[in-house]
Specification:
The structure is a single chain. By secondary structure, the protein is mostly helical. Strands 1-2-3 form a 3-stranded parallel beta sheet. α3 runs parallel beside α4 and α6 packs antiparallel against α8. The chain is globular and about 50 Å long. It starts with 6 loop residues before the first helix and ends with a helix. The N terminus is likely disordered.
Length: 155
């Protein structure tokens, strides 16, 4: 996949100072053993992500099964103003490694862990206990420390 696939919805590219939110909840959410969502559940999650104004939803891996294909197809048809992608986060991460230094890309990739916790809390009412909050704090502090150290290196 290339970014030309989402250009009709977003234009040619991302302007300076603009952040696009690329959500992988529907793909990453099924990575745990025994986890799985029905097509209806995936559509409901996609609707909630649309309410959160996410820019791109990675809706799963449509080549994996007819059910995944149907879910991705229906999510694309039933959500407006959101680009829907299938198994493209690894492509984006690979391109990030080509464009940027790994010492910057990897820490930012780790930010998805606290983000997933917040999505679980916001969409599913998951409790954020002290260990989750401490873990998120450690990740965010580490990312900020690493970014600061790297910015000094490039001065």
């Amino acid at each position: 996949m290339n970014f030309e696939a989402i250009a009709p919805r977003f234009g040619g590219g991302v302007s300076a100072g603009k952040i696009r939110i690329f959500d992988t909840t529907l793909r990453d959410g099924e990575q745990a053993p025994g986890a799985g969502l029905t097509v209806a559940e995936k559509i409901e999650v996609a609707r909630q992500l649309a309410r959160l104004r996410v820019d791109v939803i990675e809706a799963g891996f449509p080549a994996a099964s007819p059910g995944d294909f149907e879910a991705v197809q229906r999510i694309a048809a039933e959500t407006r103003g959101i680009a829907v992608a299938g198994l493209s986060s690894h492509y984006c991460l690979s391109n990030a490694f080509r464009a940027g230094d790994a010492t910057l890309v990897v820490p930012l990739d780790f930010m998805r862990i606290p983000l997933i916790a917040v999505v679980g809390w916001a969409l599913y009412g998951e409790r954020l206990d002290i260990f989750v909050l401490l873990g998120a704090l450690i990740i965010v502090a580490s990312v900020l420390w690493n970014l600061r150290a790297e910015s000094r290196r490039f001065r």
